[in-house]
C-alpha cells in the first residue's frame, strides 16, 4: 500500500491521495485508475449517491470524478481573487441526497465563506458568510438530527480574543451557537482532519495524540453541540 495522506472508502470503492496523484481502487483493493489532474491534492469525499467523488487541491481547485466511468468529469476553481488558496480550505461535505456540495473556503481577510454547489453540473448556487468575521474549520451533516453543524471561531471580538463555537446551519445562517473552549476547538479540529483522511499513518504524523486511542474515538459535531446545549440549558 502506498503512503497516502488520505485513504477513504465507501465500501464499493476506495480513493487514495498522495498529493500529486489520486488512485481509485475497487472493493478488493485492485487499482482501477490513477489521476494526475491536481497538485497539492490531499482531501477526497464520496457522494452519498455513489456516482462521483470530489478531490480538493490547496491550489484552489476541485476535481470531480465519475466512479462508473473512472474518469475526470470536470475541474473547477473555487478560490481566486478575494479568496485565499490556503491549506485551511479543509472541509467539504455532500448533502444527504447528494444534490449539493458544501465547501469551506478561506478568504484573504483571514475569515471564511461557505460555497454551495449544485452537483448536477457543479455550478455555484450561493456563497454564505461573505463579509462575516467567522472562521470555519469544518462542516458536517448529522443523519440522526438531520442538521448541518459547523466548527469554528469568531475573530476580533470586543475583548480582542477569538470566540470558539460549534453551531448549526439554518436558513443559510449560523444559528444555535454553543461556545466551547479553545482546547476543545483544537481537539475537534485535529480529530476531524484525521478522520477525514481515513486515519492514515501519514496524516497521523500531524496529530499530537496517542494515535491508536484517537482512532477509536467517535466524536461528532452534533454530539458536541448537544452536550453544550444541554449543559447551558439546565
| Bulk shape | globular
Sheet of most strands: 4 strands, antiparallel
* Overall pLDDT score: 89
N- to C-terminal distance? 50 Å
Major β-sheet strand ordering: 1-2-3-4
Number of strands: 16
- The number of distinct helices, counting runs of at least 4 residues, comes to 4
| N-to-C order of helices and strands | EEEEEEEEEEEEEEEEHHHH
Helix content: 10-25%
Which structural class is indicated by helix and strand composition?
Answer: alpha+beta
Radius of gyration, in angstroms, nearest whole number: 18 Å
Share of residues in strands: 35-45%
Low-confidence stretches: none
Overview of the structural elements:
- A 4-stranded antiparallel sheet has the order 1-2-3-4, with no helix packed on it. Strands 5-6-7-8 form a 4-stranded antiparallel sheet, with no helix packed on it.
- The mean pLDDT is 89.
- The protein is globular.
- A hairpin with a 5-residue loop joins strand 10 (100-106) and strand 11.
- By secondary structure, the chain is α+β, with helices and mostly antiparallel strands.
- The longest helix is centred in the last third of the chain and has 15 residues, at 182-196.
- It is built from 4 helices and 16 strands.
- It has helices at residues 182-196, 201-204, 211-216, 221-232, and strands spanning 6-9, 13-17, 22-26, 31-35, 41-46, 52-57, 61-66, 71-77, 92-94, 100-106, 112-118, 123-128, 134-142, 147-154, 163-170, 173-179.
